Amino acid sequence: MKAIFLTINCLLTTLSLQAQPKVDVQKEMEFAKAQYELMLEANTDLSRFPQSVKKEGTLDTRTSDWWCSGFFGGSLWYLYEYTKDDKWKEAADKWTMAVEKEKYNTTTHDLGFMLYCSFGNGYRLIKNEKYKDIMLVGAESLATRFNPKIGLIKSWEEFKRFDYPVIIDNMMNLEFLLWAAKASGNSKFYDLSITHADNTLKNHFRKDYSSYHVVCYDRTGNVLAKKTNQGAADESAWARGQAWALYGYTMMYRATGDKKYLNQAKNIAKFIANHPNLPSDKIPYWDFNAPNIPNEERDASAAAITASALLEMYSYTNDNAHYRLAEEMLVSLSSKAYTANLGENNYFLLKHSVGSKPYKSEVNTPIIYADYYYLEALLRYSKIRL
Ligand code: GLY
């Protein structure tokens, strides 16, 4: 009897040890605060948004019309969410308002990234009605890119002579439109999001649930070609594309409760988790089929987006595998291998992302969206326990 009691006790101790979080969120957030204080001191021109690091090692900045302009403000909102310190709220507001004029931009499908990561987080946290009004104008602008005959939001004006390209990344901008549907009561935003998500689900995925990067359509919605822009090959699995897909369908399940989206996300997660080229530290190469693996760059941004999505998925699936993979990714991202030293890395948090290897752009550099999704993942991780 005593032996059984001791065994059970031992088992419970082991289980409770196993359930201890392996990432020290408080420590990582303290570092993020200190590093981003330096980032704010170094960036005072509100028309130039921190983006990455140039080949010669200096800071690379972009204007508000670049698709990443919402991520710096968004990262500052996450720091405000964690600290509740007005200092971060003021900084976040400044860098968020600096994106405002993009609400009229109808030339990009990326308004979700630009306006929702910035104003959306701000509105969620402080309910500033001005942010809401700006976003609703922006949502109308984004909706102009939806062609009802084709049933998809157009990504770029042209790609390799095709005039209706749609990229998997575009799933991410639906979160903004689904918010707009609720905030405005206009079901058009909801309907077009569902149509876009369903057509992407139908046409963007292979049998193994990996995703093409670009699908090109004709004017009646027929698929003309399936290609890549940032991946290694048309038939390869570009790592960030898989991350966008995972995040996008997890978010679609949150917004609609439709199980088919959750099933899709689960299958994408399986593709990533079981891929023979996923390294043991779980930070993907920039493409799962990059030609020279293991001598290829990793993409910390893909890991940060994937980890954040998996943590949300875990809250729906209760599947420990989803939590564990996210945690392993965060353990690696928060290690010295990927997290910068204070004052280095041009004040970005993470090192080693890949923007576009085929274009030799932002290869093995810090990138602002890696920081944004890393902070989001840390916040999610701090709220969820096994
Ligand atoms: N949306 C562009 C990218 O993920 O690089």
Tally of contiguous helical segments: 13
Helices and strands, in order, run as HHEEHHHHEEEHHEEHHHHEEH
The major pleated sheet works out as: 3 strands, antiparallel
The value of Rg in angstroms is 21 Å
Classify the secondary structure makeup into a structural class: mainly alpha
Strand order of the largest sheet: 5-6-7
Explain what the structure shows.
The chain has helices spanning 2-18, 25-42, 69-83, 86-97, 111-126, 129-143, 174-184, 187-203, 239-256, 259-273, 300-317, 320-333, 368-383, and strands at 49-53, 59-62, 146-147, 152-153, 165-167, 214-217, 223-227, 353-356, 361-365. The protein has 386 residues and is mostly helical. The protein has a single domain, classed as Glycosyltransferase, CATH 1.50.10. β6 (214-217) and β7 form a beta hairpin. The protein is globular. The protein starts with a helix and ends with a helix. 49% of the residues are buried. The mean pLDDT is 95. It binds glycine (GLY).
